[in-house]
């Protein structure tokens, strides 16, 4: 069985074709600049050279059509015909409270996703565009929606309710939802396998540290708390997002800088985070380089970032009454030995002892603590696409 996994953004589309008999990726690619000119597809099938297909794509339907043509191309394709695609798994960012698990896509499901769009206006509409486009081109192929928020629907009310008038939760669904659920689920499953213990017996803190970042407390395989909230803005300092701030700052800046709502949203989502502090970049490689050269604001950005992650690891350990392992994943978590070491520095009282030699690794499953460390620290490359494919197969 071959599953096509699609992750549609407003002007981009990431995809993988996975053979679920052996869970091997047969093709991978990304479409960029959909609807904004100079659009192209970067495509690579296993064992074949990468290709770049430059063609204008006015919408997601055209983009998906080009992806499918690339997959069946006689020279750089991965399959003989579209009939080999057994199902399509779609990443959907926000399922609200309506979806606590993945679902086969129907008209009713799409209507519900449309209703959730006000909770994720930047993400759900393009997710839906991808679903509709795919249904037109592959009308007889089953489609599954896999939600970023679903994994966190096991959080208790004490973790997701905001201290606002309760009627706003009842009327508008204002609560903490959490994101990066497919990533946190994947790495927690892998951690159980690596540690050789049942997931149901483990207390884990999963750190998904990329340009967007979140930390999740996982007790017995279930999310019990997480840093992202009503939107992906809450929680950690991120590449361009501010994370936790005093809410009064919002109205203060709007008044002082004469900003409207759109300008303020742009400020906290796209101009803040480590970019805002450092003034250098939202890319941690650039910031680390600048800090090494003596840039004090770049070093401050790193210090603030590490402190916030460390703070939540400690908080979640307290909340769960202890932890068995800390998991690092995503771009920074997988590739920065310095970040892992700095974040874990000071957590020795929990039983964490980083082994510098083991920690000197990038993008490879590794236990980076000493043999006598009572709390293990694991580097686990995430694989959200495989999680989506597995959920898709399980449903169809």
TrEMBL record:
GO terms for biological process: acetate metabolic process; acetyl-CoA biosynthetic process. CDD domains: ASKHA_NBD_AcK_PK (cd24010). Its EC number is 2.7.2.1. Substrate binds at residue 91. ATP binds at residues 14, 208-212, 283-285, 331-335. The active site is at residue 148. Pathway: Metabolic intermediate biosynthesis; acetyl-CoA biosynthesis; acetyl-CoA from acetate: step 1/2. It is an enzyme of class 2 (transferase). The keyword Magnesium applies. Its cofactor is Mg(2+); Mn(2+). GO terms for cellular component: cytoplasm. Mg(2+). Can also accept Mn(2+). Keywords: ATP-binding, Cytoplasm, Kinase, Magnesium, Metal-binding, Nucleotide-binding, Transferase. The record marks 180, 241 as: Transition state stabilizer. Mg(2+) binds at residues 7, 384. It is found in: Cytoplasm. It catalyses: acetate + ATP = acetyl phosphate + ADP. Homodimer. Catalyzes the formation of acetyl phosphate from acetate and ATP. Can also catalyze the reverse reaction. This is Acetate kinase. It comes from Serpentinicella alkaliphila. The lineage of its organism: Bacteria, Bacillati, Bacillota, Clostridia, Peptostreptococcales. The gene is ackA.
């Amino acid at each position: 069985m071959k599953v096509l996994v699609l992750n549609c953004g407003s002007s981009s589309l990431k995809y993988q074709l996975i053979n679920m008999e052996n869970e091997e990726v047969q093709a991978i690619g990304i479409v960029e600049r959909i609807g904004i000119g100079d659009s192209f597809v970067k495509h690579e099938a296993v064992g074949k050279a990468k290709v770049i297909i430059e063609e204008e794509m006015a919408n997601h339907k055209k983009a998906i059509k080009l992806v499918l043509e690339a997959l069946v191309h006689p020279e750089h394709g991965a399959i003989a015909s579209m009939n080999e695609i057994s199902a399509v798994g779609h990443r959907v960012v926000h399922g609200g409270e309506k979806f606590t698990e993945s679902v086969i896509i129907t008209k009713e499901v799409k209507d519900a996703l449309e209703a959730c769009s006000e909770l994720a206006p930047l993400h759900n509409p393009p997710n839906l565009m991808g679903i509709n486009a795919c249904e037109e081109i592959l009308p007889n192929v089953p489609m599954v929606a896999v939600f970023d928020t679903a994994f966190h629907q096991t959080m208790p009310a004490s973790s997701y309710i905001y201290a606002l008038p309760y009627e706003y939760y009842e009327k508008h669904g204002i609560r903490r939802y959490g994101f990066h659920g497919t990533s946190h689920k994947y790495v927690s499953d892998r951690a159980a396998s690596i540690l050789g213990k049942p997931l149901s017996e483990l207390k884990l803190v999963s750190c998904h540290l990329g340009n967007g970042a979140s930390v999740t407390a996982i007790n017995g395989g279930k999310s019990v708390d997480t840093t992202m909230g009503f939107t992906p803005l809450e929680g950690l300092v991120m590449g361009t997002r501010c994370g936790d701030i005093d809410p009064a700052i919002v109205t203060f800046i709007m008044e002082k800088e004469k900003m409207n709502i759109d300008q303020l949203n742009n400020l906290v989502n796209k101009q803040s985070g480590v970019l805002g502090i450092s003034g250098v970049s939202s890319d941690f490689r650039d910031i680390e380089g600048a800090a090494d050269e003596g840039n004090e604001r770049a070093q401050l950005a790193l210090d603030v970032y590490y402190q916030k992650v460390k703070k939540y690891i400690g908080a979640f350990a307290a909340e769960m009454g202890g932890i068995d392992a800390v998991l690092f994943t995503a771009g920074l978590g997988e590739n920065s030995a310095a970040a892992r070491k700095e974040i874990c520095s000071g957590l020795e009282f929990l039983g964490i002892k980083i082994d510098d030699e083991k920690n000197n690794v990038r993008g490879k499953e590794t236990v980076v603590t000493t043999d006598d460390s009572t709390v293990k620290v694991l580097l686990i490359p995430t694989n959200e696409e495989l999680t989506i494919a597995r959920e898709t197969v399980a449903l169809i």
